[in-house]
Amino acid sequence: MPATYARGVPYELFARLRREAPVCRVPEPAVGPWREGPGYWAVFRHADVKHVLRTPADFSSHLGATQIRDPDTPADLEFVQAMMLNTDPPDHSRLRRIVAAAFTPRAVRALEAAIAERAASLFAAGGCDFVEVAADLPVWTLAHVMGVPSQDRRLLYDWASRVIGYQDDEYAGLSTADAARLTPMGRRAVAARPRPVPGANPRSRAALRDMFGYAHDLARSPQDPESVMSAMLRGGLTEAEFENMFFLFAVAGNETLRNGIPGGLLTLLEHPAQFARLRRDPSLLGPAVEEMLRFWPPVIHFRRTATRDLTLGGRRVRAGEKVVVYHASANRDPSVFPEPDRFDVARTPNDHVSFGSGPHVCLGAHLARVQLRAVLAELLSWDVTLAGDAVRLTSNFQNGLKHLPVRLRPRT
């Protein structure tokens, strides 16, 4: 239930289920306007989670897509199946190759200095909502990679809010872009935004026609030949593949870090001895980033669909049934992580699954790590204190914060 996660990830429940029912049936009751579903198999242990993610022949991303909730209509399912996230090899491999060049270590290294400079520019002495501050860097980076004009960056923020935060009343209708400052194609997108319909799937083509209209407008504008948009235009994508690729980068490339960066800071503030240790030894920045990702996974779960009758964790799973892997649970599995509830900035090895595993391992993982490290390195130069209560996002998918009031003071 989304409201459960507004209070926090239920790690104690996950620990009990790992011990007693590591693969178990979970019902899908109706929630508000969302209709009842058929239920699914939930997977909680690290080894089983990695097995599901690494075996697309048995556990398909394509058959039912990757969200627990089924698309509303066969047409909606067919549309989202064109997204790289919702494909299996070999289609997945083909789509990934089209845009992979923008995310190689070499390509990311070319951005590192600019990302560090942008991260440093975010901080100023005084009080702020760190969620809002942190949101700037992934949006800025994403706009740069995609070739989105700087004036239109805020549209990426709003689209991600609508899609990821649809279970949260504050985020579902969020609209922060100032139309007067947008490009003409940005203003057309704002004018085309559909009115919210309670219970409608926020990932449907109809619900996002403003974003897809913008994507086509952007494709018709002059492009940096090194941008993701140029790669998409050269890649021979169908219209549905093009729209879904834009969707994937505009949302997944944005929201994951928008939640992961504030979540990482809150974790450090809740573990002041580890924050102090990191200040004393900045060489721990690399393992600290991995531990932040393990301890505060931005994505709680992903869905697959069984392609055949099979056995998983001693349970009989039938062809066509939903199988949902819980990254947040796998990251606290004591068989892999000694003292899994202890936050340790020097933890190594750290085989977390926050970026997935197998063919769908996050394409932008290296770029995300660079951004996390840039923000964390900058935070070491500041004294940071909580100035109010952290407010969590109501979502059973994203492990997010809506508000994190803090006070910043330069360290002397």
Automatic annotation (TrEMBL):
It comes from the Bacteria. It holds the Pfam family p450. Gene3D superfamilies: Cytochrome P450. Keywords: Heme, Iron, Metal-binding, Monooxygenase, Oxidoreductase. InterPro entries: Cyt_P450, Cyt_P450_B, Cyt_P450_CS, Cyt_P450_sf. PANTHER family: CYTOCHROME P450 YJIB-RELATED, P450, PUTATIVE (EUROFUNG)-RELATED. Belongs to the cytochrome P450 family. This is Cytochrome P450. It comes from Nonomuraea indica.
